[in-house]
Amino acid sequence: MPPAQTEKHVNDNNRPLIMVVDDETKIRRLIATNLERSGFDVMSAADGLLAVEIFMKSSPRPDLILLDVMMPGMDGLECAAKIRDIDAVPIIFITAKSDGTTKLRGFDLGADDYVTKPFSIEELIARIRAVLRRSQAAAKPDEPETQIENGPLTLRLDARTFVANGHEVHLTATEFGLLEILMRRPGAIFSHEELLHKVWGAGKTSEVQYLRVAFTKLRRKFEEAGLEGGIISAYSSHGYVLRDMREDALEYL
């Protein structure tokens, strides 16, 4: 096994550890070099099977995995499924495939982001930092949560109020429930069934028209608050996604 495929650099500065999984040596080295310059430690693997093996043996385990989709042997989707059986580590897919079906499969497996080749290193690092920040925030369950923020959007959980672009917006209980789900994971796609089950209950999971009506009203309220369109989008007849509007996050859907 070539040393470059399993080498792991860890120092005492508590730098985030990123695993880079890609069968192209030049891409692995390019990403690793730039990540290390940007304050990350890096470990790598040349295919999905090796990545699973390294992940299971690593201590500490990586804080995030950059995972190519198209690889010989075990591809990235299968690799992600096996890792998800072990740990909830954040995963960002990197691939030349930009079709909606592949994206949906990735998100269904619990992917946190999806970057299409070719990409800029600056974009990749911004996405890594955004995903790590979300992951770290979710790992603090003992801290009382009073509000959720996404750029100009603030959902105040304690007061059950919503502020968009500095304006308080009146929401119905249904609209508040839907927006809370989307605000907790901006950029993630939530299926029709999941949204209907969580907000309307198990007996309403086929009532897609409920979502169409509710999101039409939410979009109108955003526009009345001075926000541009496209903040909430329907995705390929599968579900809905709220755009990640935080400072260093990039729109990718």
Number of domains: 2
Instruction: Give the full name of the CATH homologous superfamily of the largest domain.
Output: Response regulator
- Average pLDDT rating: 83
Instruction: Please report the first level of CATH classification, the CATH class of the largest domain.
Output: Alpha Beta
CATH architecture of the largest domain: 3-Layer(aba) Sandwich
Class by SSE composition? alpha/beta
Tell me the β content.
Answer: 15-25%
Unreliable parts: 1-12, 248-253
Tell me the major beta sheet. Answer: 5 strands, parallel
What is the CATH topology descriptor of the largest domain? Rossmann fold
- Shape call: globular
Strand order of the largest sheet: 2-1-3-4-5
Helix coverage percent: 25-40%
Total strands: the figure is: 12
Radius of gyration: 19 Å
GO molecular function: phosphorelay response regulator activity; transcription cis-regulatory region binding
Keywords: DNA-binding, Phosphoprotein, Transcription, Transcription regulation, Two-component regulatory system
Modified residues (4-aspartylphosphate): 68
InterPro entries: CheY-like_superfamily, OmpR/PhoB-type_DNA-bd, Sig_transdc_resp-reg_receiver, WalR-like, WH-like_DNA-bd_sf
Quick structural overview:
With 253 residues, the chain is α/β, with parallel strands linked by helices. The chain is built from nine helices and twelve strands.
